[in-house]
Specification:
Low-confidence stretches: 36-102, 107-113, 386-397
Radius of gyration: 53 Å
Mean pLDDT: 78
Shape: extended
Largest sheet: 3 strands, antiparallel
Structural class: mainly alpha
Number of helices: 28
Distance between the termini: 131 Å
Number of strands: 5
């Protein structure tokens, strides 16, 4: 510790160093420092030099820092006052904190400075800046909008969404790796893949009800009977080692029960044929007679593996027929609800749908309804502002409604027999006889002359054309023509000019049927030649036509005449079909009016077959 005398000596020396000038040196130094800072920051004219007292302590400190870095007398004077950082002071006051220069000037300066004074002076100085100076400031510091986005409200980020495989990989690659959405649906559905691939919609994967199974069994047994009859007529080929069931089996209850049980496994349990043949044999194999002791009982296998696959195909066909029939029934229901269809037409359509055994027959009923009630369907489309959802478009849209609007319906009714009655005669011969009248076709046409027709001949042609269109749209007539052609039609093939040039090698796929003549249509059911024929026709190599005659003669020396030969044979084929229908629309009367109407109906049915029905 220091004694009191030494402490007083040190304090006296300190007072001599600080207080001898009465503060004059301190004031000069403070003024020089403020002048230095103001001169340095006044390059752009932002601050005045008249009021040095408004500079804060930070500016003064920065001025002193510049002074130290510059050196010179000012630095020596500043460090010589005993308060510089470079002076080491050793004495009895060494342990006490030193008084800084800032500590002396800051209290007085804070008392003189008023809040907001510096901001107001800064705003006043900005108002005095000219345009050039302002542009220079913006070039140097920017216009202040560079970070304006940071002041805006942050936008909500989009929710995270995982990308699907289809957005990352090529469709072909996903299909090759079985990673498409279709493959995922197949894996997620508890139905064998084979049955899912054959499905055409959700309806195809719906288990059939008991009533539908009963109906399917009846339909399948009918198809099996037709198949067996067709093969019996052609001669059964037992090279595959499987003997078919016999005609007698169709009246056997065990055979019918076996068919019913297999269809249930296919349509309700969705079991595949290999599984049924291996693990569910009890449904189509039954014991025969009593077994002897120690011996296995004799059994009868009602259905072979080939028969099971045949039932599998028939099940798929029946489901398609069932789906199409539901669509047709909804169409009839809508016509009934809108009061557009008559009671007789409704009963006629429902009877046809109930007895339909093929997709084509149901399509015929749908087209008939579309043609007869096209106006009502167009009104639906206009009301809904959308297209109708019908599967197929009608070929003669509005034929009957157009006849009604022009008055030709009276001519049709005067013909003595309707298209529906002709169809009934084809199913049950003699059901209807054409009515007899004294009015001839010309007399009926003469009544139409006026606003719509200028001459009797024009009205007569319009009436005959309308009768032909209505006959062509009748479902029963179309079914008769289809059945007749399926049984008697043959196929003839001729090469085109391109085919003559390209089909020269026996290895060519079309060489085998390049000059095919009169091959029955039924014969194509047991081979894949029809697919190759369709491919050759689409490629423009050959031309194929159906025929019901054996009179087509082609000149091998003049291939360009093949078109005329085909045209003439098509006319003869139509005449053959029409000749099968004529007896059902002819009258036995011998008067002139009946003869004239017979001639008109004969011409109308020929035009219907040639222009509208063939080819089916």
């Amino acid at each position: 510790a220091m004694d009191d005398d030494e402490e007083e000596d040190l304090r006296a020396e300190l007072d001599d160093l600080v207080g001898n000038d009465d503060g004059s040196d301190r004031e000069r130094e403070d003024k020089r420092e403020r002048d230095f800072i103001v001169d340095e920051d006044d390059d752009l004219g932002l601050f005045g030099n008249d009021d040095h007292d408004r500079l804060d302590g930070r500016q003064a400190s920065r001025g002193r820092g510049h002074a130290r870095s510059m050196g010179g007398d000012y630095a020596e004077d500043y460090e010589g006052d005993g308060y510089g950082d470079g002076e080491d002071y050793d004495g009895e006051d060494a342990g006490r904190p030193r008084r800084r220069y800032d500590d002396e000037i800051e209290p007085a300066r804070r008392t003189r400075e008023m809040p907001g004074t510096r901001i107001n002076d800064f705003v006043d100085s900005l108002e005095n800046i000219d345009e050039d100076t302002w542009m220079e400031l913006q070039d140097i510091f920017g216009d202040g909008e560079e970070y304006a986005f940071a002041m805006e409200a942050p936008q909500q980020e989009e929710a995270y969404r995982e990308r699907t495989l289809a957005e990352v990989f090529e469709p072909a690659e996903l299909e090759a790796k079985l990673m498409t959405q279709r493959d995922e649906d197949i894996r997620a559905t508890d139905v064998p893949e084979r049955m899912q691939l054959r499905a055409t919609g959700r309806e195809s994967l719906r288990p059939l009800s008991e009533d539908e199974i009963e109906e399917e069994t009846t339909w399948v047994v009918r198809q099996l009977h037709a198949w067996l009859s067709r093969h019996a007529a052609e001669g059964w080929d037992s090279a595959n080692g499987e003997e078919p069931f016999s005609q007698a089996d169709f009246i056997n209850e065990r055979f019918l029960a076996a068919v019913l049980s297999v269809l249930k496994l296919l349509s309700q349990d969705f079991l595949e044929v290999p599984y049924i043949a291996r693990h569910r044999r009890e449904v189509f194999v039954t014991p025969e007679g009593d077994a002897r002791e120690g011996e296995d009982p004799a059994t009868r296998e009602w259905l072979t593996t080939g028969d099971l696959w045949r039932l599998y195909d028939y099940d798929q066909q029946f489901r398609g027929l069932l789906s199409l029939r539901r669509s047709a029934e909804r169409l009839i229901d809508r016509l009934v609800s809108s009061s557009a269809i008559s009671r007789d037409d409704e009963e006629y359509a429902r009877d046809l749908l109930a007895g339909a055994s093929s997709v084509e027959e149901i399509s015929d009923v749908t087209e008939w309804a579309q043609s007869r009630y096209a106006g009502a369907m167009q009104a639906w489309a206009q009301a809904q502002k959308a297209e109708t959802t019908l599967k197929r478009a009608a070929r003669n849209v509005g034929a009957w409604e157009q006849a009604v609007s022009t008055g030709v319906d009276a001519f049709v009714l005067a013909s003595g027999i309707s298209a529906r009655q002709i169809g009934d005669n084809l199913v049950n011969p003699g059901s209807h006889i054409p009515s007899e009248g004294l009015e001839t076709p010309d007399d009926a046409a003469r009544k139409l002359v006026g606003e719509n027709f200028s001459t009797v001949d024009a009205a007569h042609r319009a009436g005959r054309k309308t009768v032909a269109q209505i006959m062509a749209m009748d479902p029963q007539i179309r079914r008769f023509v289809r059945a007749y052609c399926a049984e008697h039609a043959c196929v003839i093939v001729r090469p085109t000019e391109r085919g003559l040039r390209e089909i020269t090698d026996e290895e060519h796929p079309a060489f085998a049927f390049k000059y095919l003549r009169h091959k029955p249509v039924a014969a194509f059911a047991r081979s894949a030649q029809w697919l190759a024929l369709e491919k050759a026709v689409s490629d423009g190599l050959v031309r194929a036509e159906f025929t019901l005659t054996a009179e087509a003669y082609f000149d091998p020396r003049n291939p360009s005449s093949d078109g005329d030969v085909f045209e003439a044979d098509r006319e003869k084929t139509a005449q053959v079909v029409a000749s099968q229908i004529e007896p059902h629309l002819r009258t036995d009367a011998v008067n002139s009016a009946a003869t004239a109407w017979d001639r008109l109906r004969r011409d109308a049915i020929l035009a219907a077959v040639r222009d509208h029905i063939l080819p089916l």
